[in-house]
């Protein structure tokens, strides 16, 4: 099997989850023996897998359709739900953005998305193409805890106490203001947020800018860091108060490093994050403060969540994601030629069907024989 994995404007999204997910899938496929090219002009290939939705992606999608090549469109975004409160005018443009995404996703033979929640959002938005769930995965070889790097980055950033870290673009949707409020309530701990602070022309949020400029003295904002594994290792706990996600790669990255995770209690996480087992969940600043205190003071809880984080990261390993992708590609290649599509509906209990082990990887167990997977797809065409 030879596939083309394509990410438009790689330089523009180099510091984003789009790029990391793309790289994870490329490596995952190579690990399971799938030949991959990242250049749509490097033909022939049996399937084109698009990780973006811009004009070049639309061009290559249209050309593949004319040439009879199967196309998978990857839904890293589900529409207005994860677009609002991000960039300048995003709230105004959100309805148009969602309409365009629906148009684009409908052009593919199938849509892949990282969580069961994201799949349900796409179905509710009216996307009629077959939708399958596959995790973005985590590169466990790269995100491996290193005590030497921990010491280096703690000294570099002046971290001397129990340290809470967060990561992501510095935009309102990521819950940065709650992160700052938690830090203000816990002045005896260190807080650090890794992430790009966009130019005001691209992300103009005056209230957020004011809060950042007036942040508590125990908060550090070093910006985007290339060595994310080393920098994250400097922290003791991930606090990720994002208000909406499709998956949230930093959660898997922190888990792979053995860092306990605190997240906002969102429906996005209901299928794969379990409070008290592989994370702590909270709904407010008060809840986040209490969760941080518990992990700082309760060593047994800290150790238990470290073990849960390890299980979570193992379930999202690139080897497992690669097997899932390979099975899904076989399914897509077996689909009949494009024709009128009936509206896809959620099948029974989508969560149990897509992820019986509650790992969040999505779909039937990718280690099952292809014949069993094929039967699943025939019974449930929406999978």
3D architecture notes:
The protein is an alpha/beta fold and 383 residues long. The protein has helices spanning 17-31, 55-66, 80-83, 90-106, 116-124, 147-157, 176-185, 206-213, 228-233, 249-256, 285-297, 299-315, 318-334, 350-354, 370-379, and strands at residues 2-6, 35-37, 47-50, 70-74, 110-113, 131-133, 163-167, 190-194, 219-223, 237-240, 261-264, 280-282. The chain folds into two domains: 2-137 and 317-379, Rossmann fold, CATH 3.40.50; 147-315, Rossmann fold (3-Layer(aba) Sandwich), CATH 3.40.50. The chain has 15 helices and twelve strands.
Q: Classify the secondary structure makeup into a structural class.
A: alpha/beta
How many beta-strand elements? 12
In whole angstroms, the N-to-C terminal distance is 22 Å
Q: Tell me about the largest β-sheet.
A: 6 strands, parallel
What is the arithmetic mean of pLDDT? 85
SS strand fraction: 5-15%
Radius of gyration: 21 Å
Topology, element by element:
Elements: E1 2-6, H1 17-31, E2 35-37, E3 47-50, H2 55-66, E4 70-74, H3 80-83, H4 90-106, E5 110-113, H5 116-124, E6 131-133, H6 147-157, E7 163-167, H7 176-185, E8 190-194, H8 206-213, E9 219-223, H9 228-233, E10 237-240, H10 249-256, E11 261-264, E12 280-282, H11 285-297, H12 299-315, H13 318-334, H14 350-354, H15 370-379
Parallel strand pairs: 1-2, 1-3, 3-4, 4-5, 5-6, 7-8, 7-10, 8-9, 10-11, 11-12
Helix pairs in contact: 1-13, 7-11, 10-12
